[in-house]
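can u pls check wat happens w/ glycine
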Amino acid sequence: MTPLPISRIRVSFPPDAGRDRSYEVVIGAGVLHSLGELLPIALGRAAGRALVVFDESLPRDLLKAAHGALAEHGIETETLGVRAAEGEKSWAVTEAILKALANARFERDDPVIALGGGVIGDLAGFAAAIYRRGVPVIQCPTTLLAMVDASVGGKTGVNFTVGPPGGELLAKNLVGAFHQPRLVVIDTSTLRSLSPRHLSAGLAECIKHAMICGSVPGPDPGLTDWTRANVGPARSLDQGVLGELIARNVALKARVVERDEREEAADEAGGRAFLNLGHTFAHAVETLGGLGLPDGRPLDLLHGEAVALGLVSAARTARVLGLCDLEVEERVRQMLEAAGLPSAVVGLPEARALLTRMSHDKKARGGVRRLVLPVGVGRVRIVADPPEGAVEAGWDAVRG
Ligand code: GLY
């Protein structure tokens, strides 16, 4: 059998105090076994030891593979298992990672390796960003969502509770730092241990990319049609399709973040904010309880599932505002269905409560809500302060 190709995508950033901050994303089946060889190259020097922060629920052989790959190159490992639940993305767990680093007397050059999904990457990345004012972090994502989105671009952080006693809201990613990884190692074979539901959740971010691919730098206009045709085969873990899916999505994300590292670009510039398509809606519902699928099964939304709903709501809002026609919402729904994702739920609060929750989204700049909305298939723009009626209509589009 011909071995599957390994893709290498370079993410380029200007140097800081003479240090090159560019890094490589290495994608392929089995590349985790090369971690020990890749690490010193990425660090630009020999590595003596590393702290591996890993998802406790990962199969033990994956952890062993990472450990073995490092040991083979003389790199000693400390390990810390973390539960990969959104509730664990907290200050308390960050502190536990910082304690592990401090107790083992880690120095400025000793790297932290994140082995797991987005929760692990965000936590380990944040601890690495603030321990001794910044130590190297290596992202080894094991979920599709973390592979195509969270592991690239350097956003790290934790959730934080805000509001007066009795009226607290959990604000997603409110406290954090930009801290680019030194290396990202994406072993596509790790997806074999991912549940079908989590695989679908990752496809939501790929569908989001397919909906913005014509509006970002270095556009990949064929991505929408390709995604539509390939979400099905990706679900059956076809390694060739997964390799291409991940490489094209990482390439898109890389081109966006390297031009707008800190999400500061002007609204019309096609910056990092475009990656928030569907997310302002998603953040308003993803920590809600009491939701269910239209057939009555209860549903505690995963991030990707909330993004799926957000993509539909954004398409409907845009249509009500006359920004795009029905085709956009239909395309989104088709892709979500092919990906096994929900496009409607029961149990949503009334629109007013949802609008309040949206205004707590940290992406609301200066109190004015900004929404990324589609203006065609694969094209988006930012709309400042959209009329509330249109946003309410967006929520109606996902009521089952
Ligand atoms: N997940 C969106 C971003 O990295 O900017």
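Residues 149, 153, 155, 272, 275 surround glycine (CB under 6 Å).
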